[in-house]
Amino acid sequence: TMKNQISAKSIRENEKIENALKFKYLRSIFPNFKKMKLIFPILDKIPILLPFFWGYRVIRLVLFRRDRIEKSIRNINSIDVNTISEYDKHMKMVGIDIYNGRETK
């Protein structure tokens, strides 16, 4: 589900659940370089354009895809420390290492 996807991403990108919640909006607005390269392949050749494409992406979403913004905000708002903790607990119970081998603090 979208809730699980956001929980997993929050855990993978931040080592502490509390930090994941702080960055959940920031990551949705400004995806990491790897994801931006998938959206805009030109970044492979000219990575310095990353800030320009972040701006372009925000403007495009605001002008043409407001429904996606509203859906994302609803999904992001539904995530809290409890949701992420439960997801992490379930992944550990079935033997899935959500941290991809990184040490947790």
Description:
By secondary structure, this protein is mainly alpha-helical. Helix content is 69%, strand content 0%. The chain is built from 6 helices and no strands. It has helices at 2-13, 17-29, 33-39, 50-64, 66-77, 81-93. The chain starts with a helix and ends in a 12-residue tail after the last helix.
List the topology elements.
Elements: H1 2-13, H2 17-29, H3 33-39, H4 50-64, H5 66-77, H6 81-93
Helix pairs in contact: 1-2, 1-6
Helices, by number, come to 6
What Rg is obtained from the alpha carbons, in whole angstroms?
Answer: 15 Å
Distance between the termini: 27 Å
Spell out the helices and strands N to C. HHHHHH
Low-pLDDT regions: none
In short:
With 105 residues, this protein is mostly helical. The chain has helices at residues 2-13, 17-29, 33-39, 50-64, 66-77, 81-93.
Keywords:
single chain, mainly alpha
